[in-house]
Description:
By secondary structure, the protein is α/β, with parallel strands linked by helices. The protein is 42% helix and 14% strand.
Amino acid sequence: MTNTPRALQKLIEQFDRLPGIGPKTSEKLVYYLLNRPKEDLKEFADSLLRAKDEITVCPNCYNFSDRSPCGICSDRSRLKDMICVVAETADLQAIEKTTDYNGVYHVLQGNINPPEGITPDKLRIKELTDRISRDKPKEVILALNNDIAGETTTLYLSKLLKNQNLKITRLAKGLPSGSEIEYADDITLGYAIRDRKEIK
């Protein structure tokens, strides 16, 4: 039987639910936060709740934003005939940091991953095909992680979009296998964007 107070254990369990955080890291974060002044914790909690209230999802690309449509979709200097498909908003932000891309985006809000119950109908794939039919882009870039879920999604989308009369490309293999776009450095990601290859 553990001697950890119930409230502390519940908090550790909440952190443990976050992606990429295991039990040890959860404990470390909880103990760190409990050692902070109460005012810091209140500011942290208030910021989280404010973001939840103020951040919305762009109805066009499904990026998180504080306006609708988002700043990228409403930017007239953006190339609207080039859509970069990413799994998450964090991937979009990583690509934006490279400053090598000036098109628009489409956020799927995940990757196809049947073992975890994430099937194509759970993602923003229908919205992507509807958008392609409506906007008639010249190129769709599949900028998905170089792991099993990302590869599965890339294969599914490349087959789905094959006869849409557009160029389908993917990021060049400058990204290491098993890596996540969100954590790639700016230079590597910049090369991957510039050296993208057409899927045939």
